[in-house]
Amino acid sequence: MVILTIMTLITKKILNNSLVLCSDDKGQEVIIMAKGLGFKSKVGDIILPELAEKLFVLQNDIKTTDYEALLDKVSSEVIELVSMILEESTEELGISLNEKIFFSLVDHVHFAIWRYHQGIIIQNNQLNDIKKFYPKEYAIAKIVIDKANDKFNLQLPDEEAGNIAFHLVSHQLEVQDIQPVMLATKLLKTINRLVLYHLHIEIESSSWNHTCFLTHMRFFIQRIMENKQLHSNDPALLALIQQSYPHLMICGNSIKQYIESQLNTQLTDEEFGYLLIHLVRLTSS
């Protein structure tokens, strides 16, 4: 969440029972969230920042009217539910709360409820992969769906939890849509298959060492996708691993060639060395 030093917040519009659009003394637009704030406020009122439960500074790349259009159709209960979700996410995942992830999830939960009432079911063929590769994100998303089902008397399926988990992962990757997350999930799945084929190890998220391996592979893929590969002028690490663990080279090279072909890039020697280190740790467990 963005924290500002604000002298004055003036109410511009009541968005709903819990949200008020304000401007500060520099003209920056801010959305303040507090239970019942919309009931107590009117246009022109001065609101003290310390009264806010959440405070969102609207970024210039998104129009205020886009937020208003969304909030006009969403109930306060959905907004409060999403707020709870992100509190959980901040604690468990270290996700920083900002307006983009907040309103993205508000829109998603609202649309999921609407689809349910229309009888529209969206299949998520990657649900099992999401559970395996993003267990924390999925666990938080499942809480959301369970609470939504209880609160609104629904029967939203687990696939919706998978969709929300994608949003949480995409926010951590700092991307604006879930396509890179879906690609990263595909890459992880194939890495698992290559490990199973070459090393006869089936990755299980219930195993601590296997979970560590998956975590490192997630960051490995993220660095490559963001063009932030590790670099080093010292070839000793890679040479040492190649000499000490020749049996891992076939698996390592298969993963390397697959990643390079899918992401149209070349792995640095240091990235390849760290990939091999994680394979060493995996086979030593």
UniProtKB/TrEMBL annotation:
SUPFAM superfamilies: PTS-regulatory domain, PRD, SacY-like RNA-binding domain. Residues 73-178, 179-285 form the PRD domain. GO terms for biological process: regulation of DNA-templated transcription. One of its GO terms (molecular function) is RNA binding. The keyword Repeat applies. InterPro entries: BglG_antiterminators (IPR050661), CAT_RNA-bd_dom (IPR004341), CAT_RNA-bd_dom_sf (IPR036650), PRD (IPR011608), PRD_sf (IPR036634). This is Transcriptional antiterminator, BglG family. Keywords: Repeat. Pfam families: CAT_RBD, PRD. The lineage of its organism: Bacteria, Pseudomonadati, Pseudomonadota, Gammaproteobacteria, Enterobacterales. The keyword Transferase does not apply.
